[in-house]
Specification:
- This is Gag-like protein.
- This protein is an alpha+beta fold.
- Helix content is 25%, strand content 20%.
- The protein has a domain at 16-92: 2-Layer Sandwich (Alpha-Beta Plaits), CATH 3.30.70.
- It has helices at residues 31-41, 69-78, 155-173, 182-193, and strands spanning 6-7, 19-26, 45-50, 59-66, 80-83, 86-92, 200-202, 205-207.
- The strands form two sheets. The protein has a five-stranded antiparallel sheet.
- The chain starts with 5 loop residues before the first strand and ends with a strand.
- Mean pLDDT is 82; it is low at 182-208.
Length: 208
C-alpha cells in the first residue's frame, strides 16, 4: 500500500459487553482449575482474570470473555455454570462507571477542554511546567487530603460515584439511556471473528 509496510494484529481483548462473571467461587480453588472448568462448558471463553476487591472475601469472582454470541446468550439464560462439584451463578460483567475529571487541574465534574485554570501537577497540585519535578507530599484537589485527586479514598470522589450510580440507574429506569442489546454484542463478536481491524501508522509501519 503506497510502499508502506502494513502489519495487521488481532485485538488483544474483546469489549466489556462480551464479558461474563462467575461468582462465589471457593477461595481454595486455584485460578487454573476454575479456568479449565469454565472452558469445559464454554469453549470460546478466553481472557480470564480474577476480580480484585478492596475488602477480603471468602469467595472469588472471575471475569472472562466469550467470543461466540450463541454461547454467551445460552449461558446467560441458564444462569449457572458447573465449577467442580458446585453449580455457581454466572452474570453479565458490568464495568464501573467512568469518573469525569479534568487532567489539567484534577478537579472532578469537568474535562480538560473546559478548564480555565493553569496546568497543575497530578500529585502535589503545584503549577506544572515542562521540567517540573514533584518533591512535595501528595495533595487531593477535591478535599486537600493526602491522596491522589481521583482516589476512591477521597470522600468527595466516593460520594460523586454513588450519586452518579444512582443517576444512571434512574436514567435506565426512565428509558433515557439503555444497556447494550444482544445485537450489539453480536456485532462486537463478529468484528473479531471477521478480523476487521483498524490500523494505525507508527514509524513508517502501520499496525493494528
Amino acid at each position: 500500500m503506497d510502499d508502506i509496510g502494513v502489519e495487521v494484529q488481532r485485538p488483544r481483548s474483546l469489549p466489556d459487553c462480551c464479558a461474563l462473571v462467575v461468582r462465589y467461587t471457593p477461595a481454595d480453588l486455584s485460578n487454573e482449575f476454575v479456568y479449565r472448568e469454565i472452558n469445559k462448558s464454554i469453549s470460546s471463553a478466553s481472557s480470564f482474570s480474577k476480580i480484585n476487591y478492596h475488602r477480603p472475601r471468602s469467595t472469588n469472582d472471575f471475569r472472562f470473555c466469550v467470543a461466540d454470541a450463541n454461547e454467551y446468550e445460552e449461558i446467560l439464560k441458564i444462569g449457572r455454570i458447573a465449577i467442580g462439584h458446585l453449580l455457581l451463578p454466572i452474570t453479565a460483567f458490568l464495568p464501573g462507571l467512568k469518573l469525569t475529571y479534568c487532567a489539567n487541574c484534577w478537579i472532578i465534574g469537568h474535562t480538560k477542554p473546559e478548564c480555565k485554570m493553569n496546568p497543575r501537577c497530578r500529585k502535589c497540585l503545584d503549577n506544572w511546567e515542562f521540567n517540573h519535578r514533584c518533591q512535595k507530599p501528595i495533595l487531593c484537589a477535591q478535599c486537600e487530603g493526602p491522596h491522589l485527586s481521583t482516589s476512591i479514598e477521597c470522600p468527595v470522589v466516593y460520594n460523586y460515584r454513588i450519586t452518579l450510580k444512582d443517576q444512571v440507574k434512574k436514567a435506565i429506569k426512565d428509558g433515557l439511556i439503555s444497556q447494550p442489546s444482544i445485537n450489539q454484542k453480536r456485532e462486537a463478536n463478529r468484528y473479531v471473528e471477521d478480523e476487521r481491524f483498524e490500523t494505525k501508522q507508527t514509524n513508517g509501519t502501520k499496525q493494528a
